[in-house]
Amino acid sequence: MRAEAARLEAQRAEQVRLIMLEASRQEQAKRARLEAARQEQIERAAAEAAAKQAAERLEAARAEAARVEAAHAEATRQELAQQAKQETARQEAARLEALRQEAMRQAAVRAEAARLEAQRQEQATQAKLEAARVEAQQREAARQEALRQEAARMEAARLAAARIEAARAEAARAEAARVAEAQRQELAKQAKQEAARQEAIRQEQAKLETARLAAQQREAARQESLRQEAQQRETARQEALRQEALQREAARQEALKQEVARQEAARQEAAKQEVARQDAARQDAAKQEAARQQQARLEQAQREKAEYEAKREERLKEIGKQLALEAAQRDAAANRTTGAPLPSASSLRRGWLFGRTDANADLVAYAEAVAKKIEMNMTFATVREAAKQPHIHPTVTIAIRSDGTVEKVTFTVSSGVHALDDAIRKVIADQRLFGPFPPALARQYDVIEIRRIWVIDTAIRLQ
């Protein structure tokens, strides 16, 4: 069905293509005819221009003849006046007359020749114009005939296209009817198949039900057999248990005698062990109390250290601010003396951040990024073993250059465990680069010192 539809569509497309090709060919022929008509008009205009030039030449010849005639009349008048005034000049006048007559004769000959030439050219021009007119009429008739034929061909093509379109529509309608019939038959076939499938399912279910009943009967028989076999085994087991109980009772009596003797020996041994346990418990309690007191002393020392460090950081901040203010004042005084401009923040080449707060938001943000990198980069494994030893939280100062490299690491407060301090140095060294300063921060400082308290328990946290 699809192949037939595709074939019909291909035929329709081919017919449309042929019609378009024929229309294109006819359009080209029409353009050629229009070009021929345009050339004909150009030739006609040229012929008209030639005729106009011939008429102009004829008019010029006529004007020349009139001029000659006027000259002749003037000469005659002058000659009569001379004959009346001077008789003595008669011979000269005769000679001049002879010359004049010769000139007139020659002028008349030339005028006649020009007239005849102009008449001949006029006749030739008229003949050419007539021939051009006849040819133009013939071309116009041919053009009208070609236009009529072109219109007939276009009408024939349109009728052919209409017939093709009607045939295609009829084929499509027939194809749609055939498809609908095929679908109806397919639905009927599917309905029959569904009925057959339902019947097969019913029969299969009946077979399964029969097999299930047979399996239930077999299972009941098997359960009965198992029950009887279990009953026999239980009887044998009860008898064996009775025999075993008799044996155990005899053995228990014997064991009871031995247990009494063993308990007495164990009581005496337990008394000895209790005395030893109480002595060990007293010693362990003393050790735990000593360790608790040591831990309390360490915690107290750590709290005192933290309080001292917080106060010290506050003092250092105040000192740093005071130093920066004094330096700015000194620079301002020097600039006022030298006339130089006031210093900007970019002249402060070293910055400090003790803790987590500062007026410089860029400095705080960079320090937080450094702390996050240390905390999030799976560095706890480096310090895990060393952190198991008793220690206090160390205070560490990291000096970072503007390109992100570490200048130095300083322990303001040690953890009290050398291995843990070394592990912290290794954690910082493993980071390699902390990232360059942001542009705003790089314009202010070359080196930043960041001081934080390192808390190490189940992870590394910088406070």
Automatic annotation (TrEMBL):
Superkingdom as given in the UniProt entry: Bacteria
Full protein name: TonB C-terminal domain-containing protein
Organism: Zemynaea arenosa
Record region (Disordered): 70-89, 175-246, 264-306
Lineage, top ranks: Bacteria, Pseudomonadati, Pseudomonadota, Betaproteobacteria, Burkholderiales
Comp. bias intervals (Basic and acidic residues): 175-210, 219-246, 264-290
